[in-house]
Write a structure and sequence with these properties.
single chain; mainly alpha
């Protein structure tokens, strides 16, 4: 007997199967364009329907509400998932995550600004964003840390291990508030090397660039 969750997912997939993937992409693109143009509060199902020449009833039937439609569009637009990253070391994983975050932020800074502000005033949107964007990112970073423990890079009882996701995601989310811009790869790389890795007892130059000594004695000699 199928579980309630699987039955709900099957029903949802059945509802959405009536729209072709190509048409779905058109709808999602229109949603993101409207968000960039006028923000979340001004986005309406009527506006999406008008922009895409789609019936409003179809949008409600397929996605149920504006927050669900927005989150579906965001999920579809995500090109790089942190869960796809596995470089073989925790430092490498975190540096790759920094590059992925930089690429995503650079493409849609205005969009994320609009949604970040709107989420604070719209509980439904905040819940949807947390479940779709934030929670998966936390889970992905936690998985990176767990792999590091299994490889013996860090001790299982290292007290800082529990806070890696909070550090990285906290830096990503707080910088727009503090400085009015999203962090780029350079900032996140420095943050990882100067704050995250030292707290774990790891060297802060894991990728061994030409100007970064691998021998601590060499570093001290300079």
């Amino acid at each position: 007997m199928p579980s309630p969750g699987s039955a709900q997912e099957t029903s949802l997939a059945s509802r959405r199967s009536k729209i072709t993937p190509e048409r779905q992409q058109e709808l999602y693109a229109a949603v993101l364009d409207l968000l960039r143009e006028s923000g979340y509060d001004s986005l309406t199902m009527e506006g999406v329907a008008s922009r895409t020449r789609c019936g409003k009833s179809t949008l409600y039937r397929q996605w149920g509400s504006k927050p669900e439609l927005v989150v579906a569009a965001l999920r579809c637009a995500r090109k790089t998932l942190l869960s796809d990253i596995d470089t073989g070391s925790l430092a490498g994983d975190l540096h790759e995550a920094a590059r992925a975050v930089d690429a995503a932020s650079g493409q849609d800074t205005a969009l994320m600004h609009a949604l970040g502000h709107a989420a604070l005033q719209n509980p439904d949107l905040l819940i949807a964003l947390r479940s779709t964007l934030i929670a998966p990112s936390i889970a992905a970073i936690d998985t990176m840390v767990e792999r590091a423990v299994r490889r013996g890079e860090i001790a299982a009882d290292n007290p800082a291990a529990d806070f890696v996701a909070a550090q990285v995601i906290g830096a990503m989310r707080s910088m727009p508030l503090l400085e009015g811009r999203y962090p780029d790869a350079g900032f996140l790389t420095r943050f990882i090397e100067c704050a995250v890795l030292p707290s774990l007892g790891l060297p802060n130059c894991p990728t061994s660039p030409p100007n970064c000594p691998t021998d601590p004695l060499e570093s001290g000699a300079r």
